[in-house]
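Example 228.
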Amino acid sequence: MTDAGRGPSAPDRRRILLLVGAAGAGKGTQAEILSTELGLPHLASGNLFRAAVRDATPLGKLAQTYMERGDLVPDDVTIGMFMEQLALPGAERGAILDGFPRTVAQARALDETLARQGERISRVIYIEVPTEELVERLAVRYVCPTCGTPYHQLTDPPRVPGICDKDGTPLEQREDDRPEVVRARLSKQVPPMLEVIDHYDRAGIVSRVDGRQPIEAVTRAILEELGA
Ligand code: AMP
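Predicted structure in complex with adenosine monophosphate:
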């Protein structure tokens, strides 16, 4: 079947990008930069769900119970939310999807839904960082419990070790940044993420980018992969 009459044809097909990476890989940072550089909206599942909960929309009310339990929101709800976002005027040229698809089932459902309107994922950017480096990165992150300012022991330390520059409060490590908690979180998150990568590898549309580089170098590598 051709694309005729089934949505945008090849030359003006939208650019639908997936940004994939584990917690601490720098995905959020890159998503914001790429959104500006490419002029595409950044659609992050967690942010969209949190906004829906805050605004008490029907979607928010549905999502809330799952989120409070730390469970995934059902696939049909999640896919519906993204398709709604992709239908908004801001996404006419495409979008950067972040946090979705999180499982192969979601990836297949997304592919099928896009295919029904003559579209597909343009490229999957996988920001790769070894697990032990992710654990280290998060383990050196400290925050001020009073004003919330984050510090990084190596790249962005406070002037006086262990003390907030702004208000002199002793810095703390977030409970969920402790190495054993981070390892447990990653061991749940990484396997389904790798399955999603495998799924798109079969279609030959995954670009792997070394996330151990400085932020600007990661951005440059991604833009090169995208031919931008
Ligand atoms: P996050 O900020 O990405 O950790 O997402 C926060 C919460 O939103 C998760 O705990 C899930 O309840 C929900 N969520 C985010 N992404 C998805 C997804 N792809 N599928 C289902 N639920 C999701």
